[in-house]
Write a structure and sequence with these properties.
Elements: E1 2-5, E2 10-13, E3 21-26, H1 37-55, E4 59-63, H2 71-80, H3 84-101, H4 117-129, E5 133-135, E6 141-143, H5 159-165, E7 180-185, E8 200-202, H6 204-216, E9 220-226, H7 230-245, E10 250-256, E11 259-261, E12 264-265, H8 276-282, H9 285-293, E13 301-302, H10 305-330, H11 338-359, H12 365-386, H13 392-408, H14 422-429, H15 439-455, H16 459-471, E14 474-479, E15 482-487
Parallel strand pairs: 3-4, 3-9, 9-10, 11-13
Antiparallel strand pairs: 1-2, 5-6, 6-7, 7-8, 11-12, 14-15
Helix pairs in contact: 2-3, 4-6, 4-7, 6-7, 9-10, 10-12, 10-13, 11-12, 11-13, 12-13, 14-15, 15-16
The structure holds adenosine monophosphate and zinc ion (ZN).
Amino acid sequence: MKIYNSKTRKKEEFQPIEEGRVRMYVCGPTVYDNIHIGNARTFISFDVIRRWLIACGYEVTFAQNLTDVDDKIINRANEQGRSAEDVAEEFSKKFIDVMHKANVMDPDIRPRATREIGPMIGMIKTLIEGGHAYAADNGDVYFAVRSDPTYGEVSGRKIDDLMAGARIEENEDKNDPLDFALWKAAKPGEPMWNSPWGEGRPGWHTECAAMVHRYLGCPIDIHGGGSDLAFPHHENECAQASCAWHQGFANTWMHTGMLLVDGEKMSKSLGNFFTLEEVLEKHSAAALRLLMLQTHYRSPLDFSWERLEGAENSLARIAGTVNNLKWAAAHAEGTPDTEPAAGLIAVTERASSEFESCMNDDFNTAGALAAYFQLVTEANTYLDQAGSAVDEEAATVCAVSIAGAFALLGIELPQPEEELPVGLLGVAAGLVAYTGDDVNEAAEKILAARAEARAAKNWELADAIRDQLRDMGLIIEDTAAGSRIKYAK
Ligand code: AMP
Ligand code: ZN
């Protein structure tokens, strides 16, 4: 399996530290508001990556934090006259709920910054002792960037270039403008904890380094997040961990491309966002995921409602093909032609191996999906040609393979129509004298009666059966493989 390592800017053969095990960490959200679908793109991408690693047989341990103390949370709390804790609690819950709706698997470990203050203070102490950090007069503690000779390697930046961009702010307590806060002295009304440097709270970059070390152990196999986190967040996480423990931090760095609207990054500050919650009220989680996975995780992805609508239609077509294959297999009649059946099996195997090689090539979901879109077209051609003489095994193998591939990516295909209630069918069957409690039997009887009426050119009865079903919200669908009764859309 090859994975693009953004640190080395190369696709590398993936080699876990421990045989058969993968330890991965993906930075979680700052819980001050509902997440938007840009954030969701990152979380869905890593969900798929995790699912594929599991499918490949790795025992994956996946950790993701909740940043539940931060300036944004404090500002929101002040605006709303609430406590920061209350805001963080509300949006942590909402985040977890909406991740479930989006079919994103729960992390194995979900640490929260406010419950990890002890380990963070421990790490900061170690950094001060090692000469990598210093307490300023104002009660802040800073990391001394120039004390880390490898600083800049994660995001591919040079210290001198960073220096050119850094501004020295007024009242600066840092020794060097590049230094960043590990600990921030308390301001009145803010959440605070005791520390050797006085009351205060941790800086944002501090938590992930301490959590990775505590829950996964350094170094880990994969560290991920959106590409906007590479600098300074990931650079700073890595600097702290490598200087505190000298064991390395993460072997493979993975960064997802940004979700855009009209070419601009979706973000809270630009106001060009849709929350995941509102999108899932209008569309299925499966369609949103399909839309996202049709673009490689590292490429930018332009969101539009039309594209999401398009994904919804593709999904219906795929689910329709799977259902038609299953239905045709269950209602096969006559002797199937062996050649087209063998052909269907062969194209199914080809799609499956193409899927696997695309996924093993840096999680190329776009290519993996394209292989199955092609198979769906081929399956439909097969069904049209075979009529009712469908090869049961070939059709079933193909249906299971399509549904399985999508499920593997976390895309649940829409279920076939709900089962038709026998009560309704019983009424229609009144026209053909049906009494019984088996839905299939009732449906068969109605369809047979209609076929018989049509064969006898008794159009009045055939139409009456059709009309009565229609009045009950049911339609008769005539397909190459036979007729069936469905709910009208
Ligand atoms: P935040 O809560 O701002 O730290 O963001 C949570 C995650 O969403 C981070 O991994 C960000 O990199 C990611 N993210 C933010 N905006 C976008 C976007 N427009 N597209 C993709 N990922 C994003
Ligand atoms: Zn982080």
